Amino acid sequence: MSDQATSAHHAVSIRGISKTYQSGFQALKAVDLDIRRGEIFALLGPNGAGKTTLISIICGIVRPSGGSVLVDGHDVLRDYRITRSKIGLVPQELSTDAFETVWASVRFSRGLFGRAPNDAHIEKVLRALSLWEKKDSKIMTLSGGMKRRVLIAKALAHEPSILFLDEPTAGVDVELRHDMWQMVRQLRETGVTVILTTHYIEEAEEMADRVGVITRGELILVEEKDVLMRKLGKKQLSISLQSPLQALPDGLDGYALELADDGATLIYTFDAQSEDTGIAELLRRLGERGIDFKDLHTLESSLEDIFVNLVRSKP
Ligand SMILES: Nc1ncnc2c1ncn2[C@@H]1O[C@H](COP(=O)(O)OP(=O)(O)OP(=O)(O)O)[C@@H](O)[C@H]1O
Question: Residue 125: how many CA atoms within 13 Å on its side-chain side?
């Protein structure tokens, strides 16, 4: 299959995208990335890493300095109208429409893309987002969480196949955050591809099928979330001791051990992937030294630990 044909199978196909702003600042360096149809892809990165720049280029809002982006097989620069109509973009804030009703505002968004009115679709979107009861309310009278939902409804009004969520749950309460996660999963079930940027790693851990990590304009990693957590995740064994230790026992130099809880807990970090975790041998050696324990449990690292390590280890 030609490169072009393979690319057409992806929702988004990015090749060699770079961006140098007029100030001379290079925000992106030769990014390659394919987003699969129907997946939830989370783009993680520290402040200023280039996430918004990348999304803006995919949406055709920012012009790249080099490289190409295909959306559903169409080039975003050459076929802007087609590609833009396939994309729903949920910005972080609602800046206009305060005096409009929910219904009018969402309906208007559909018209912007030149699509024929379809009130049944607008109703479906509003119901799915629990906004139906509020359809005749002016946007300015809604709570912050409801306004967020209106933003999503507006982005879905023209039936896009790809939805971008820029920090979807920044500043919303826990309950709404969980509702939004639920909603995004439901969207995926209808075949929509979802790309989100987030600072809440918990969000990526909870929802994403794949994760991309961007730092200083470079995409340093793209991986299935589960594989990433298995591959880079470390496991720890926490050993609660019968009597606290003052120092690490002699003769256990080869082990990644630390003392915690004022010496009452011994923590052993091991590679969950390796065949021999070394646990049996460690426990035997502790026994030989008369170190008794009352409890054992294992801890796994979170996506957050993995992310912090990745971004830190990048020179
Ligand atoms: N119009 C611009 N002109 C010059 N530099 C810019 C412009 N827009 C963004 N930048 C710079 O490019 C870099 C990447 O910015 P971008 O907004 O893409 O980062 P981000 O990963 O989305 O960050 P955040 O998580 O803080 O939103 C930053 O250093 C930013 O200052």
Answer: 25
Cα three-residue angle 136-142-146, rounded to 5 degrees: 100
Domain CATH number, residue 278: 3.30.70.1560
7 CB within 6 A, ligand 1: no
Q: How far apart are CA 54 and CA 62, in angstroms?
A: 9
Same-domain status, 27 and 105: yes
Note whether residue 314 is domain-resident: no
pLDDT(78) > 70: yes
CA distance linking residue 232 with residue 16, whole number of Å: 27
Interval between CA 31 and ligand 1 midpoint (Å): 15
Residue 99 CB–ligand 1 contact under 6 Å: no
CATH number of the domain at 11, please. Answer: 3.40.50.300
Evaluate if residue 219 carries a pLDDT over 60. yes
271 C-alpha to ligand 1 centroid (Å) = 36
Nearest Cα residue to atom 28 of ligand 1: 48
Q: What pLDDT was estimated at residue 39?
A: 94
Please work out whether the CB of residue 43 comes within 6 Å of at least one atom of ligand 1.
no
Query: CB of 52 closer than 6 A to ligand 1?
Result: yes
Confidence of residue 309 (pLDDT cuts 50, 70, 90): confident
CB atoms within 10 A of CB 260: 12
User: Do 253 and 181 lie in a common domain?
Assistant: no
pLDDT, tens digit, for every residue of 127-148? Answer: 888 899 999 999 999 988 888 8
CA–centroid distance, 216 to ligand 1, in Å, is: 10
Residue 101 placed within a domain:
yes
Same domain, 146 and 272: no
Final residue belonging to a domain, choices 212, 230, 248: 230
For ligand 1, say whether the CB of 109 is within 6 Å of any of its atoms. Answer: no
Phi, psi (degrees; rounded to nearest 5) at 291: -95, 110
The one-letter amino acid at 248: L
Kindly state the average pLDDT of the residues 49-66: 93
What pLDDT sits at residue 281?
86
